[in-house]
Write a sequence for this structure.
């Protein structure tokens, strides 16, 4: 008796299964239940980018870049960091105009390269936003304590800083409460959070502009000689100094403009406004950074620049110490907005990864009243707050740079892949000079990774990646919505 052969079972989906671009384009119209509120215009998106960019980076790392790395040539270091960021920003802008849902580089990589790489990028972005927020919260705490001390108010010793038996400190209470407070604000509503962030951005940009105006008359060109005392790269023991290592240091000041893309689902017109937000935030931030670097290096010799409070010390060096309070206030404002927008980006990445099934679905729940991922926002806020309260992370900021640069690389790759595989898909913005710009972004980002980071930094970052891969293979691989649909031979709901 002859029998018909059984149809072949669907081939199991591999690690590089990709999201359909068509499905991504329709996803915002097929949501079940409450959806994220579209309340953000172009200026609010620019403010989100500036809020996450302009903070501890310019108020602190510029001093390290001048004093310990590049001298007056930190001006060139800023230009290099800005150029590398610009390559990535142009690529971000194109794909953000095509993929209009939250998720940033994670979503773009999922649609172009594949799930396993998207997971790695998403995991790195969680690190970037969270680890940038935690030490910034500690900086905010220090500035608030300085204000309290000037008024004769002092916290108990144990509550002033992270755990350090030698210093008799146990927990940074203010850092923890600050993170928790901003998390609560984000959970209540994106419109309310955006309004607060926009106000903080206007205030801190005003402080930076005031520093430039006050310091400009005190520029002395003698302080720019020698302009580049350490050249491009100089080895000093196990460390490197010079313009290129300086670029890696000040690169932290550019981290965060990509936070604009994590709010794509909350933009009124994402195809038009998200590219404006990305490029606007980077352009304005870079303009302020270079202006401040020129003024700061002209006001005093590089050897005299304070690595921790460079702006305030520069004003004191020209007998304008009475204005130092302005830069301290700017640091408080700047760090506040970085925490707010960093937590926004981290919670939205968690939200999208959970919606894709790579993390438990429970964390992707949207609050019916506030229409925000309130549960995930509070969970991530508590975790970041505990890290800020317990751990000193000032030595780990380079890890944030590594996470960001890895995301830059894959976004540039995504543009190259999509130009080849889907050249006719509508784009609200097109990256100019393809393939030159994406390739330049990849090469320059890799250059900073290999010539700027230290072995210990790469080792710690490697451990974080291993933890992420363990979670992916232990949970995400088996619960992936895309893989389940592919294995069943059906379209993803």
């Amino acid at each position: 008796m002859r029998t018909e052969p059984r149809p072949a079972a669907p081939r199991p989906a591999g690690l590089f299964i990709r999201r359909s671009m068509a499905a991504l384009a329709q996803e915002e119209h097929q949501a079940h239940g409450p959806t994220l509120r579209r309340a953000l215009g172009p200026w609010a998106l620019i403010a989100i980018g500036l809020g996450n960019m302009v903070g501890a980076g310019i108020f602190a790392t510029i001093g390290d870049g001048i004093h310990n790395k590049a001298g007056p040539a930190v001006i060139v270091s800023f230009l290099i960091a800005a150029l590398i960021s610009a390559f990535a920003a142009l690529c971000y802008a194109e794909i953000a105009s095509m993929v209009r849902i939250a998720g940033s580089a994670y979503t773009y990589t999922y649609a172009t390269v594949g799930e396993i790489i998207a997971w790695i990028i998403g995991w790195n972005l969680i690190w970037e936003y969270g680890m940038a927020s935690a030490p910034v919260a500690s900086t905010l705490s220090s500035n608030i304590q300085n204000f309290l001390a000037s008024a004769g108010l002092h916290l108990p010793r144990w509550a002033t800083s992270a755990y350090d038996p030698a210093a008799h400190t146990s927990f940074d209470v203010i850092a923890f409460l600050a993170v928790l407070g901003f998390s609560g604000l984000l959970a209540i509503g994106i419109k309310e959070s955006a309004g607060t962030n926009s106000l903080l951005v206007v205030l801190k940009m005003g402080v930076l502009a005031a520093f430039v105006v006050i310091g400009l008359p005190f520029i002395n060109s003698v302080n720019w000689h020698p302009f580049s005392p350490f050249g491009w790269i100089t080895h000093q023991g196990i460390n490197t100094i010079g313009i290129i290592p300086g670029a890696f240091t000040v690169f932290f000041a550019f981290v965060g403009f990509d936070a604009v893309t994590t709010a794509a689902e909350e933009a009124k017109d994402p195809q038009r406004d998200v590219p404006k937000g990305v490029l606007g935030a980077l352009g304005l931030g870079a303009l302020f950074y270079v202006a401040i670097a020129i003024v700061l290096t002209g006001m005093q010799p590089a050897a005299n620049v304070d690595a921790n409070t460079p702006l305030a010390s520069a004003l004191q060096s020209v007998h304008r110490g009475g204005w130092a309070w302005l830069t301290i206030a700017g640091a408080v404002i700047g760090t506040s907005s970085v925490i707010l927008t960093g937590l926004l980006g981290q919670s939205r990445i968690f939200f999208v990864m959970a919606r894709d099934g790579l993390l438990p679905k429970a964390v992707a729940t949207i609050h019916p009243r506030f229409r925000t991922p309130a549960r995930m926002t509070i969970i991530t806020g508590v975790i970041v707050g505990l890290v800020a309260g317990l751990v000193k992370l000032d030595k780990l900021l380079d890890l944030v740079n590594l996470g960001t640069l890895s995301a830059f690389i894959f976004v540039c790759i995504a543009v190259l892949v999509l130009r080849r595989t889907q050249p006719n898909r509508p784009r609200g913005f097109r990256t100019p000079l393809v393939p030159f710009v994406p390739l330049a972004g990849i090469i320059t980002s890799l250059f900073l990774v290999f010539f700027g980071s230290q072995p210990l930094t790469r080792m710690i970052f490697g451990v974080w990646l291993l933890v992420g891969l363990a979670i992916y293979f232990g949970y995400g691989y088996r619960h992936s919505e895309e893989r389940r649909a592919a294995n069943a031979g059906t379209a993803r709901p």
